Amino acid sequence: MKNAHSLQPFWENVEKALRLQHYFQRMPMHSLSVSGYTIHLGALAEALPTLWLQGQWSAIAVVCDENTYMHCWPLLQPLLPAHLALHLIVIPAGEAHKNVHTCVRIWEDMLRAGLERSALVINLGGGVLGDMGGFCAATFKRGLDFVQIPTTLLAQVDASIGGKLGFDFGGVKNSIGVFRHPIAVYIDPAFLHTLPERELRSGFAEVIKHALIADAAQWEALRQAPLESAVHNEEVILRSLRVKQAIVEADPYEKGLRKALNFGHTIGHALEAWALDGPLPLLHGEAIAAGMMAEAFLSWQLSGLPEADLEGIVQFIRRIYPLPTLPETSFEQLIALMRHDKKNTGGHISFALLPAIGQVQVDSFADEAAIREALCWYNTVL
Amino acid sequence: MKNAHSLQPFWENVEKALRLQHYFQRMPMHSLSVSGYTIHLGALAEALPTLWLQGQWSAIAVVCDENTYMHCWPLLQPLLPAHLALHLIVIPAGEAHKNVHTCVRIWEDMLRAGLERSALVINLGGGVLGDMGGFCAATFKRGLDFVQIPTTLLAQVDASIGGKLGFDFGGVKNSIGVFRHPIAVYIDPAFLHTLPERELRSGFAEVIKHALIADAAQWEALRQAPLESAVHNEEVILRSLRVKQAIVEADPYEKGLRKALNFGHTIGHALEAWALDGPLPLLHGEAIAAGMMAEAFLSWQLSGLPEADLEGIVQFIRRIYPLPTLPETSFEQLIALMRHDKKNTGGHISFALLPAIGQVQVDSFADEAAIREALCWYNTVL
Predict the structure, then answer these.
(1) Which residue has the higher pLDDT, A233 or A125?
(2) Global confidence as pTM
(3) CATH homologous superfamily, domain B263-381
(4) Of the partner residues B117, B139, B178, the one whose CB lies closest to the CB of residue A143
(5) Mapped to the 3 state alphabet, what secondary structure does chain B carry?
(6) Is the pLDDT of residue A333 over 50?
(7) Intrachain domains A2-194 and A263-382 with the same fold
(8) Residue B265 annotated in active site
(9) Where are the domains positioned within chain A?
């Protein structure tokens, strides 16, 4: 990626800073401006009050899932203005419910609540909830204002930027959706303490990805820090957000550069869809971690990634993630799933590969034989 | 409406021109530029070839309904480039199928056809088909290019401009949708010959509305021309399009002025939804015609429309449309349906009313008693 250097400024000594950070200490509020809206990073109680100065809404609907209703809603509720009608929409949790049926439930609840176009929707939850709640808000009466409050690490560093909304359809992830920006995003790392460790690790995969494609210094720092301090470190989140911000701003509608974010995802998405029907569904980040391993192999084979870096990636990912063995009988189905990827054109399977750590090459094409080899190799290094 | 005068230029002597027009004679191609795309008015065979110079698509999917597949597809098929993969998606016809289930069918067909993001969708049909085909194109893989070829008078003068897409949900018309523009619209009045007369009359209601809200001269001309010549007159279509174009351009996201287009629609939409479950469903234009009568009464009561103009509207509409009597028992339900209108804020029911022919006043509020009186009055003048 040509602009890789411009993505690595501002915080030269990650290692030192990481050593100075303590488990979940607060830093001052940070604001990132992205495509006309603001991402607020810091305590929700400090950031949210400014929202009520931004607009006049006739009512508020909060969309949460069973988990965030239990663990996160109690933190949000006291911060909402008492004078506005409040509607709570609770949906089942999990990727398996990211489908048109859940959207229909949300729309039904919005209709039943009598939401007008002047209502505000607040999506409180992980990426699945934010994608669906955002899609329903963006399509109800052709579009209500909405705010994202991502409560998982994955959603905080990934889904919170980019305006991608939607749901899975016909076995293909996110195959129906729209691009639309929230009016604001509030990232409070305090919510991360409500997460099971497996979820935290899953989200960390996108932090790893952002480092690998555009921030070699953060990659080095991550490798050397204990995992527990890294996942709760607000500076790590901020730095990861800045990578995504720079890429999305340069390519809001995924016409080119944004494909850089696809590293690990072409194979990862296929693994996730494949595992969804099996006995051991993978979390998104787990699938992406496995996908990054296989695509790092392709990077070594096709794009000149040094072997030492391939080994570094393998070691790091194996240390963090439980990874599934892929039966050879699954390869056909996996490749068929990759063909459905939205970024494909003309029947080829397109990858974002790493010529080096901190750099990425979009529109790298691999044929079926090379993909098959990468999947075989992946099984051998587990 | 303040800009009413600027909407009435270019063709001063409508009467004379109407006399000179013959049944379906062709005029030279006209192009209107709207919000970044072009509406081509004229023979499809003449206009469509320029589309293939505008972009490179990997495949074409044509969405039609059972009727347009029979009557319109044979006219389009020879004009499509032979080298592109072609997929035909045929859905059931009619407003009763404008729902999420039909969208799911379209998405399934798009997925089965393996459409990539670089595919082009062509929607061949009336407003219902264009709204749903457009919505599915705008949301499949977060958005494919699409072209609208409206085949009904209603879709040609109304749905072709404005970028409103979507479907009915929970008994509320167009309650789910997005704003998104096609890359081009092709209006060929030749398709109108494929329509039953009832459909043609229905579409004519929007021509009447455009004249009433912004073009007093066209209103006078319409009143004096035989209906058969008016509905097949390309100049009438063009003039009607220019009204909508001027309003939509001034207010693309329905924040204010665009509500002017709502004349007849607050009550009309409620009538349409109410009749949908009854033994005699109304066509959209028939419902709007009845709605315009009732809202003309409100205009006389609340906005100063002269009584002579109210009578002129009643006479003209009664001459063209079969209109249903509204049982008093339906009034509650009708008013509840009006409350669901997307343009409402703060619980009031908002109308676009006529202070005079060719002028419109948005955000005119009527209370329930006034609406009830208008519905009673409507029954008496049938």
Answers:
(1) A125
(2) 0.83
(3) Dehydroquinate synthase-like - alpha domain (1.20.1090.10)
(4) B178
(5) CHHHHHHCCCCCCHHHHHHHCCCCCCCCCEEEEECCEEEEECCHHHHHHHHHHCCCCCEEEEEEEHHHHHHCHHHHHHHCCCCCEEEEEEECCCHHHCCHHHHHHHHHHHHHCCCCCCCEEEEEECHHHHHHHHHHHHHECCCCEEEEEECCHHHHHHHCCCCEEEEEECCEEEEEEEECCCCEEEECHHHHHHCCHHHHHHHHHHHHHHHHHHCHHHHHHHHHCCHHHHHCCHHHHHHHHHHHHHHHHHCCCCCCHHHHHHCCHHHHHHHHHHHHCCCCCCCHHHHHHHHHHHHHHHHHHHCCCCHHHHHHHHHHHHHHCCCCCCCHHHHHHHHHHHHCCCCCCCCCEEEEECCCCCCCEEEEEECHHHHHHHHHHHHHHC
(6) yes
(7) no
(8) yes
(9) 2-194, 263-382
Task: Return the pLDDT at A26.
Answer: 58
Query: Which of B8 and B201 is assigned the larger pLDDT?
Result: B201
Pick among B120, B131, B136, B139 to test the A interface (most A CBs inside 10 A): B139
Residue B176 and residue A139 in contact, taking contact as beta carbons nearer than 8 Å: yes
Dihedral in degrees, nearest 10, Cα atoms A313, A319, A325, A326: -30
Q: Are A185 and A38 in contact (CB under 8 A)?
A: yes
pLDDT in tens, A132-149: 999 999 999 999 999 999
Per-residue pLDDT of B66-98, as tens digits, reads 999 999 999 999 999 999 999 999 999 988 899
The domain over range A263-382 is classified in CATH as 1.20.1090.10: yes
B chain contacts of residue A139, beta-carbon cutoff 8 Å: 139, 166, 176-178
* Catalytic residue chosen out of the listed positions B220, B249, B254, B373: B254
Mean pLDDT value across residues A80-91: 96
3-class secondary structure, A176? strand
Count the alpha carbons within 13 Å of B180 in the hemisphere toward its beta carbon: 31
Residue A339: per-residue pLDDT: 87
Chain A residues closer than 8 Å to B85 by CB: none
Instruction: Please state, in angstroms and rounded to a whole number, the distance separating the CA atoms of residues A62 and A228.
Output: 31
- Catalytic, out of A40, A244, A259, A272: A244
**Which chain A residue shows the shortest CA-CA distance from B100?**
A104
- pLDDT digits 0-9 by tens, B235-289: 899 999 999 999 988 888 777 889 999 999 999 999 998 998 788 889 989 999 9
pLDDT tens, residue by residue, A236-255: 999 999 999 999 888 887 77
Q: Is B83 in the active site?
A: no
Catalytic residue among B199, B206, B234, B235: B206
Contacts of B120 in chain A (CB under 8 A): none
The answer to whether residue B30 is catalytic is no
Contacts of residue B176 in chain A, CB cutoff 8 Å? Answer: 107, 139-141
Give just the sign of the alpha carbon dihedral A186, A187, A189, A194: positive
pLDDT, chain B, mean = 89
Does residue A86 register a pLDDT over 90? yes
- Token representation of residue B338: 């009006």
A2-194 CATH: 3.40.50.1970
B123 carries an active-site annotation: no
Q: Shortest Cα distance from B295 to chain A (angstroms)?
A: 22
| Model confidence at A340: pLDDT above 80 | no
ipTM above 0.90, yes or no: no
User: Do A342 and B108 make contact, defined as CB atoms within 8 angstroms?
Assistant: no
Residue A244 among the catalytic residues: yes
A262 noted as active-site residue:
yes
Proportion of chain B above pLDDT 90, given as a percent: 74
Do residues B323 and B382 lie in contact, with contact meaning Cβ atoms separated by under 8 Å? yes
